[in-house]
Amino acid sequence: MIRIRPARACDAPLLPEIERSAGEAFRQWTGLEWIADDNVQSEERHRALIAHGIALVADLEGCGIAAFLNGEATPDALHIWQVAVHRDQHRRGIGRMLMEAAQHHAADHGVYSLTLTTFRDVPWNEPYYRRLGFITLDGENLGPRLSAVLDAEEQSGLPTAQRCAMRKTF
Ligand SMILES: CC(C)(COP(=O)(O)OP(=O)(O)OC[C@H]1O[C@@H](n2cnc3c(N)ncnc32)[C@H](O)[C@@H]1OP(=O)(O)O)[C@@H](O)C(=O)NCCC(=O)NCCS
Q1: 133: alpha, beta or left, given left = phi > 0 and alpha = psi -120 to 50?
Q2: What is the share, in percent, of the chain residues with pLDDT greater than 70?
Q3: Could you give the domains of the chain?
């Protein structure tokens, strides 16, 4: 059984390793293999998002926590900072369940939009989110907040031409 529940502070030490494991998916994607060895969100960052943002985990009966999603409320959307599923549990619908739970959380708080940034064209990134109902934002649709997120990613070394911002409105 897979249970999606709010993350607790005591979950935080487990989450960086889940993101590292999830990132192994990129080893199979030519040009982005290095993402598998890139920095992940720190335990402190997880604690902050658990305390002040939205933070959900997928708790699997008999296995423990196998995935997380976190984000923050913004004036126009719930922005998702990260979603990661342990590589042993990919393609079981856990990512979709986390996104649906985030959408319910947003709606419960009177917010009817999710945003995120991700890699263009990678099957488990932009095309995956498109299947979940997101659209890719370009040009003037981007807006200052998401432009700033993409700029910050560029500063941190992510290849900006391969990044995009997406929004789902419901
Ligand atoms: C993105 C991620 C969270 C999705 O989690 P998940 O639980 O596997 O997602 P779901 O089971 O809901 O859907 C998986 C879908 O992604 C796509 N996908 C995943 N891995 C894929 C692969 N290796 N090749 C092709 N498509 C793939 C498929 O569309 C798949 O659906 P299908 O199994 O029905 O074909 C997970 O792949 C992950 O942790 N990736 C690494 C970290 C990452 O990229 N996070 C997102 C940052 S924006």
Answers
A1: left
A2: 100
A3: 2-169 (3.40.630.30)
Separation of CA 124 and ligand 1 centre (Å)? 4
Ligand 1 in reach of 80 Cβ (< 6 A): no
> Which pLDDT tens digit goes with each residue over 56-74?
999 999 999 999 999 999 9
Closest residue (by CA) to atom 4 of ligand 1?
95
